Amino acid sequence: MNIVDRRNNPKGRSSGNRHKFLKRVEDQIKKALPSIVDGNNIKNLTSGKGKVKIPIKGIDEPEFTYDPKSGKKNIIAPGNNRYSEGDTIPKPQDGQGRGGRKGSKDGDPTEDDFFISVSMEEFAEYFFADLELPNLVKKYLQSIDDYKKKRTGYVTDGMPSRLNVVKSYQNSLARKMALKTYYEKKIKELNEQLLLENDPLEIDRINEEIKKYEKLSKSVPYMDDIDLRYNHFEKYPIPTTSAVMVCIMDVSGSMGPEEKDIAKRYFLLLYMFLKKQYDKVDLVFIRHHTEAKEVTEEDFFNSKESGGTIVAPSLELAYKIIQERYKGSNKYLSQCTDGDVWGEEDARDCYDIVTKKLLPELQYMTYIQIMRGENGELWDYYKQVEKEKDNFAMRCIDSVQEIWRVFSDLFKKRIA
């Protein structure tokens, strides 16, 4: 028996063709990636839903056209009610076939480029295919879960240290009450028989039975092996953190709307990259002006709080967090600011914290200076750090168009 699938578009039927097509236009998709970062809807990309529309050039959509310069052709025009084979069809005047070249104030807007839509999953694959977290220790990437013990009831045998005294005592009381009740009932029944009995031999036997049950009633042990109960524990997995990324964003008054927009776009790109490429990465979000505080993801990207500028407290807070919560993990830090500091003392404090505290703990740290070029006291101190330490990198971003270039350069795969 042969089964022929005649459905118009069965599920997955065109997936092979789609993969071939995407492979053919892969280079053009990659070239279009920076423009996606520049777009206004980059935040929507973090939701993981919907599709991304990417312009592709050099691929024309098939269409029927009229050739006014064509000569005599023998064709059959099916589906008409005017002409048959051999009839002469009058040639239309120039321009009639396509509506002429005269402009019109009416009509729908059109698109000159050919656009393709890719899913968020396909988009992320192209976006981050050649990027990685530098210096990531491989042993932390193994999918091994930590385990924690949890109480799951009682068992009848176990180690003395796990003996549950309360539960065992409750079992002992219940057992003693049950046995004593049984023995007392038997003694009562035998005494009633004794009052009705006249045979001396039977009387002696009943008395012996009474003595036996009285003795058993008094000899019920305080604690028996069957009373003992031990606490039972089972292991359940706790996901371990392979890495943590601390994100520090300057939200002081010197950071104008354009500077903050660039910083948020950079961190959104970093957020997408980590969530796509790594299963077990924690993100810590720190905002700072004159004060630094850890905030939620929502507050980090949307809060309107602002103030003066002191940078060093944010680095101190980052060091405190990784010391308290991430001693055994790969640790990364990314800092975005316009480079404005509270005088040279603040810049020197930043240098001391980064070199003496943070970098010995971190796998990699990046510093992004926004719309100020390679200028400022903080840039000068950090430039010295870059010369001294190989796990520190710094770049400047002066426009939205530079975000992807800088980001891909900071996290490009290194050849071992």
The CATH topology of the largest domain: Rossmann fold
Which architecture of the largest domain does the CATH hierarchy give at level 2? 3-Layer(aba) Sandwich
Give the proportion of residues in helices: 25-40%
The biggest sheet amounts to: 6 strands, mixed
Topology record:
Elements: H1 15-24, H2 26-38, H3 42-45, E1 51-56, E2 114-119, H4 120-128, E3 146-155, H5 165-196, H6 200-218, E4 230-238, E5 243-250, H7 257-277, E6 281-288, E7 292-295, H8 297-302, H9 312-325, E8 330-337, H10 343-358, E9 364-370, H11 377-388, E10 392-397, H12 403-410
Parallel strand pairs: 5-6, 5-8, 8-9, 9-10
Antiparallel strand pairs: 1-2, 3-4, 6-7
Helix pairs in contact: 4-7, 5-6, 9-10, 10-11
Brief account:
With 416 residues, this protein is an alpha/beta fold. It is 39% helix and 17% strand.
Describe the structure.
With 416 residues, this protein is α/β, with parallel strands linked by helices. The chain folds into three domains: 20-60 and 114-129, no CATH class; 138-142 and 240-410, Rossmann fold (3-Layer(aba) Sandwich), CATH 3.40.50.410; 160-233. Helices cover 39% and strands 17% of the residues. The protein is built from twelve helices and ten strands. It has a six-stranded mixed β-sheet, sandwiched between helices. Helix 7 links the parallel strand 5 and strand 6. Helix 4 packs across helix 7.
